[in-house]
């Protein structure tokens, strides 16, 4: 391929990807500085190679910059992070290094996190369910999200990830 786009899924990998792209000379390598699976989905939503590689890359970077990825999992210990009191076993939601919320119920944590991150002002939400979430629960959550945030178009994917119950991508 003449043009290759690289989308890392971890911020620590971005500098290595950039350096590797500089060393590889058989193709033009463009690294989109994505730091999560959600960033990758956001970047891909703007992928349109018919615009040319450089415009496509700029559009992908802009999409990443305007998106928000929220990751939700169970707390393994009680603590306070960023002013959020967390009890062991609660569901916690965070975006990057920002702790957003903690709640006893998974659905409650998702809805609280979406509210706090401005879901009502967004157009799209990708819900990526992890392997600890049943199909029925994920579909019920998608329905609840669409009723709560009426202007948001929600898409449900079953990612099967082990670490996070849900990865939520707001665009």
Give structural notes:
The protein is an alpha+beta fold and 171 residues long. The protein contains 5 helices and 10 strands. Strands 7-6-3-10-8-9 form a 6-stranded mixed β-sheet, sandwiched between helices. A two-stranded parallel sheet has the order 1-2. α2 packs across α3. It is globular, with a radius of gyration of 17 Å. The two termini are 30 Å apart. The mean pLDDT is 95.
Residues in helix, %: 25-40%
Globular, elongated, flat, extended or rod-shaped: what is the shape?
Answer: globular
Uncertain residue segments: none
Mean pLDDT value: 95
Distance between the termini: 30 Å
Portion in strands: 25-35%
**Can you count the helices?**
5
- Label the structural class: alpha+beta
- This entry's quaternary arrangement is single chain
* Major sheet size, sense and barrel closure: 6 strands, mixed
Number of strands: 10
How large is the radius of gyration? 17 Å
Strand order of the largest sheet: 7-6-3-10-8-9
Order of helices and strands: EHEHHEEEEEHEHEE
């Amino acid at each position: 391929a003449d043009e290759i786009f690289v989308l890392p899924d971890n911020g620590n990998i971005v500098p290595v990807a950039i350096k590797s792209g500089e060393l590889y000379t058989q193709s033009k390598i463009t690294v989109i500085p994505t730091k999560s699976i959600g960033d990758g989905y956001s970047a891909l939503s703007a992928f349109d190679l018919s615009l040319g590689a450089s415009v496509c890359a700029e559009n992908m970077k802009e999409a990443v910059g305007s998106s928000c990825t929220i990751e939700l999992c169970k707390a393994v210990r009680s603590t306070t992070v960023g002013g959020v009191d967390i009890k062991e076993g609660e569901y916690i939601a965070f975006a990057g290094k920002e702790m957003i919320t903690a709640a006893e119920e998974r659905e409650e944590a998702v809805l609280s996190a979406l509210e706090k991150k401005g879901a009502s002002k967004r157009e799209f939400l990708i819900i990526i369910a992890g392997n600890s979430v049943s199909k029925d629960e994920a579909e019920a959550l998608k329905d609840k999200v669409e009723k709560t945030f009426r202007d948001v178009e929600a898409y449900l994917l079953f990612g099967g990830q082990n670490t996070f119950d849900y990865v939520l991508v707001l665009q």
